[in-house]
Write the structure tokens for this entry.
Amino acid sequence: MKLIFERGREGQRCTILPACDVPVAELDVPKRERPLRLPHVSENELCRHYTELAGQVHGVNSGFYPLGSCTMKYNPKVNECAAALPGFTGIHPLQPKHTAEGCLEVLRRTEEMLCEITGMDAMTLQPAAGAHGEFTGLLLIKAYHDSRGDHRRNKIIVPDSAHGTNPASAAMVGYEVVSIPSGDDGCVDLEKLREAVSDETAGLMLTNPNTLGLFDKNILEITSIIHDAGGLAYYDGANLNAVMGIARPGDMGFDVVHLNLHKTFSTPHGGGGPGSGPVGCREFLREFLPVSPFGTPKHTIGRVKTFYGNFLVVVRAMAYLLTLGREGIPEASRNAVLNANYMMEKLKDLYPMACDTACMHEFVMSLESLKHETGVSAMDVAKTLLDYGMHPPTMYFPLIVHEALMVEPTETESRETLDEAAAIFREIWAKAHEDAEALHEAPSAAFVRRPDEVRAARKPVLRYTFDE
């Protein structure tokens, strides 16, 4: 495919503007030494270019997208209609509050609904993404300890199965990360946790269900261990889609929670667009929350983003919440768990599961034995799935599972889709034993064939080189 700069020729353009009928003003400012390099294409070529690009993008609207731990669920178009209403798109963050009461009501009602779902007492919608929410939540924990003069608490405990952003966020706040291993059941090792806590423990970061798709049966004991040591419990909401409306982080003993509106609440996910990572907290942490359109908390940590967050993303999430309502939200979670267990049951006779037990919203397969028998790796299977029009699941995560593939089918996929996907996985298993070399070369039908992974990482081509 040609790049936009390689299409067209000098002199082509998309617009026909009338000649300037006022004097041209010369500004006394620094100017470019040469004109800005913009592509010269006709409107026809421009349309074809973006249509071709769109055809190369794989999303939930074009095929099965079982990306584990990321909840790539369908984004209802009614949410987009709500976010496109002129009263929402035409708002300006600096206009007087009395002229933006409708938008403020969206923020207020969304905060209330998210508090009810999570069991928190207060919520901020300011963070711009999930990891940004982690950072914000940890700032709340730090502000709390500092306000009590408890400056020795400089350690955050993180399980070895945690999302990679957890230790990164903790380090950004200035905490030392203490990693604890998982037990044989895939959940937190309670004895190792007890050994890890001390008067230096600021808190624990935990995802529940965890990245193996398991709900930790010891969750109340885990949060009690942290609280007894004087720390706070932080809930990573990346996997809330399995339990929303059914089990609340607040009832599990968590003090802080971040949510991913682009995962759990159906707003668009990925593509470099705006995200949203709201943070909720218990009452005793309310005074540390970021600045709010409804007032400035007494000991606020300040702003973590300009103004009050990515507003139109919040509109989409609110539309989703109001559409499903009190009955639909837990139904979505139950269907997500049902779909994951259904697909796991159809595959576990061939693909060994990391944990041989019922899962929540996702399951993790280990292809270690397949690689040993045939030389076909998890990467080979993932690349081969592209030839079937399916997006690969998450690869090589969590790190505690060798040759891992993490699958999350989500509640928005039909039984027919899951049957078809399971059949593809089974066919690939057979091919691995019959013609392993073909899988090493996959994908064979995709627009981009398998790249040199090492070269792509070490010598990426990040800009277009013009012919001088």
